[in-house]
Amino acid sequence: MADTGFFVPADKAHRFARQYNQAATGGLTRTDTGQFLSKPKFFSGGGGLTSTASDYMKFAQMHLNTGELDGVRILSEDAIAIMRSNLLPEGIDNIANIYPGNVFGVDFAVVSDSVAFNGAPEGTHWWWGIAGSWFWIDPVQNIVFVGMIQNDNIFYSIQTHAAMRELLYN
What we know:
The chain has 3 helices and 9 strands. The protein is an alpha+beta fold. The chain is globular.
């Protein structure tokens, strides 16, 4: 994953995608501020990684393969199983009302109710970035999905993600 990091080096800045949101007057307005073009003071694994569709796909495929990519073991099968497990405390049934049918493992939301989450099979695990990129890993039907929309409107992103699940599973 040579193109994944906490900032985009100067020699790759020309490849960095723009980010947009709906403008109040219609159309789109750019919302990227260049914040990922310099080294941050703190590398936050929960927010701030930049990547390419190709690197994103490698990461997701490695998870689908229970920790292996191109014949190389990167994570143990036990680690993958933990990441896909419900680790929410007793009495907390889901991660949020805007994500019905989902619990939380390590680094991933995990589908616990297929019907509530547009038909994505139980055990499907997923995540999305605030810039609109997202992925899901469906170990039941052996599917990896990577989407890149470069949009920072959370509600538009949630609707787009749901529409893609509807198209694939229903």
